[in-house]
Every structure is written in C-alpha cells, then in structure tokens.
Design a protein that fits this description.
28% of the residues lie in helices and 30% in strands. By secondary structure, it is α+β, with helices and mostly antiparallel strands. The chain has a 4-stranded mixed β-sheet, with helices on one face.
C-alpha cells in the first residue's frame, strides 16, 4: 500500500482573465513530464482548447472529462508517457 502524498496541479480558470487562460494552460502543459497531468476547472466546455491542443500537440496529450457540465467542467489533461 502506498502512503505517498500525491498532489495534482489544479488550474481553476473561472476567475482568470480570459486572455490569460490559454497561455497559462499551455505553459503548465509544457512543464509536465511524460505521464503527468493537471486538472482544468472551468464554467463551460473547453472544447476550443481541445482543438488547440490537437493542433499544437498532436498525439502527445490525453484529454479526459471528469465533470461534464452543465455549470462546472473538469478536464484532466495529461502528457503522453514516453
């Protein structure tokens, strides 16, 4: 049994200026090691961000909806393991 203290980075963009959101999210992703992830919290479906990830990081990320609206959205974004 693991008694590790594993913490996941959570980015809650609901209170962040819209123009600052995507740069913060991409910067956070760029700092991930293979197999690591962070949790994105938003007040709407971040589908446009998913499309941007597909353009900038094709085949290098996973996108898993944890909470799927309608008022709260949570997505785990992971860097593919090497």
């Amino acid at each position: 049994m693991c008694t590790c203290n594993i913490s996941e980075t959570v980015i809650d963009v609901r209170q962040i200026t819209p123009r600052m959101r995507h740069p913060l999210i991409f910067s956070t992703f760029d700092q991930l090691q293979p197999g690591e992830s962070f949790l994105l919290v938003n007040d709407h479906d971040p589908r446009p961000l998913l499309y941007q990830f597909g353009v900038h990081y094709p085949g290098k990320f996973d996108w898993d909806y944890i909470v799927n609206g309608p008022e709260l959205w949570q997505v785990r974004i992971s860097r593919e393991a090497a």
